[in-house]
UniProtKB/TrEMBL annotation:
The keyword Transferase does not apply. It comes from Mucilaginibacter pocheonensis. Its EC number is 3.4.11.5. One of its GO terms (molecular function) is aminopeptidase activity. This is Proline iminopeptidase. InterPro entries: AB_hydrolase_1, AB_hydrolase_fold, AB_hydrolase_sf, Peptidase_S33, Pro_imino_pep.
Length: 375
């Protein structure tokens, strides 16, 4: 789903200051006088027309903060496990009593950081959202006991986070991307009484279907000679070989993970912090299918049990079969489907317009009382 063993460097173009045009001296006096009058008049108009009453209630509410110590929305939540108590990191952006979206990032083992582009779209719509680094990722604690990397425990962790953030069936939108989608599906099957809506982005509901798609479709799009070399490295278990990533980057990652010529900084930053132990235990070392703890994960036959409004998101160039994502929407009780024709696994970057227009429309539609939203 998501993996990185190399570092990507983004070069920022240099910025050149705008040239300043020098005004002839004979115009300086008149210009200063004219500017003084203009600025003074503008100030009078601003003071007379702009006051607290000009700020919309919705905007004031969205940017309101809790009383007491201000931490920029960050809240550290204690998580109880059979292996002891640990702490996970969350950060709330915005305040909307009717819409609270908890973001579950992918990997497994990736931090919230690659989802930072949501800050460019949700606030303008008044959508409150919460970043959340799952145990073992990003800013959260990393347990020494790796047995905590278990799907069922991860689901119970989300429930503990929900309680700590006071999310409920009237406002709780659970968003899961990639591996986060697996956790979200499992959460809905166990705790959907606490959900307002479910959003599954770029994740199929069957490990066997995912493996088949990777083998029959994705692998066949790679040059046979390149694929042969990739398979040879995998057969030897030599996944740390630099050549493996040299082959995957142009032939797989650049086509199916993110299609932008220069990957966004939040994405590379998150990839460079990936918890490789978490990833390998759950996903397995290969990009072509699941071979870790998730290798037998199957929820196709359980989707009909999900009764809350559900959005599935698929993309043309994704590592996940977009037709399977569309089918999933037809299996839940109240399903909506969003297709990103230009996108890959990171379609919120390489097909942003379609992705966020559809996602925002769904969230606001459900908040307004709709059960399904045509996208």
């Amino acid at each position: 789903m998501l993996k990185s063993t190399t570092r990507f460097k983004n070069a920022l173009p240099g910025l050149r200051p705008n040239p300043v045009t020098k005004m002839p001296r004979k115009f300086n006096g008149k210009l200063k006088s004219m500017l003084s009058v203009t600025v003074f008049s503008a100030l009078l108009m601003a003071l007379s027309s702009c006051g607290p009453q000009q700020v919309s209630v919705a905007q004031a509410q969205y940017f309101s903060t809790d009383t007491g110590l201000q931490t920029g929305g960050i809240k550290i939540i204690p998580i109880k496990t059979t292996k002891g108590s640990f702490r996970v990191w969350t950060k709330r952006i915005g305040n909307n009593p009717k819409i609270k979206v908890l973001l579950l990032s992918g990997g497994p083992g990736a931090s919230h950081e690659y989802l930072e582009c949501f800050e460019s779209f949700f606030p303008n719509e008044g959508i409150e959202f919460i970043y959340y680094d799952q145990l073992g990722t990003g800013n959260s604690e990393v347990p020494k006991d790796t047995s905590v990397y278990d799907l069922n425990r991860c689901v119970d962790e989300v429930e503990q986070v929900r309680k700590a953030l006071d999310l409920n069936k009237d406002n709780f939108f659970l968003y899961g991307h990639s591996w986060g989608g697996i956790v979200a599906i499992e959460y809905a099957l166990k705790y959907q009484q606490n959900l307002k809506a479910l959003i599954i982005s770029d994740m199929m509901s069957s490990a066997s279907d995912y493996n088949k798609y990777a083998k029959d479709v994705l692998a066949n799009q790679i040059d046979p000679k390149v694929l042969s070399e990739i398979r040879e490295i995998e057969s030897k278990g030599d996944f740390s070989n630099p050549r493996y990533m040299e082959l995957l980057m142009p032939n797989f990652y650049a086509k199916h993970i993110c299609r932008l010529s220069e990957w966004p900084e939040p994405l590379t930053r998150s990839f460079n912090k990936l918890n490789q132990t978490f990833y390998t235990m759950m996903q397995g070392p290969s990009e072509f299918g699941l071979s870790g703890k998730l290798s037998n994960w199957e929820r196709k036959g359980y989707l009909s049990q999900i009764t809350v409004p559900t959005l599935t998101i698929g993309a043309r160039y994704d590592t996940m079969d977009p037709e399977h994502m569309k089918w999933m929407a037809s299996q839940v009780k109240s399903g909506s489907y969003l297709y990103c024709p230009n996108g890959s696994h990171m379609c919120f970057y390489d097909d942003q317009k379609n992705y966020f227009q559809g996602l925002n429309k769904f969230i606001k539609g459900i908040a307004a009382g709709e059960q399904t939203v045509k996208l």
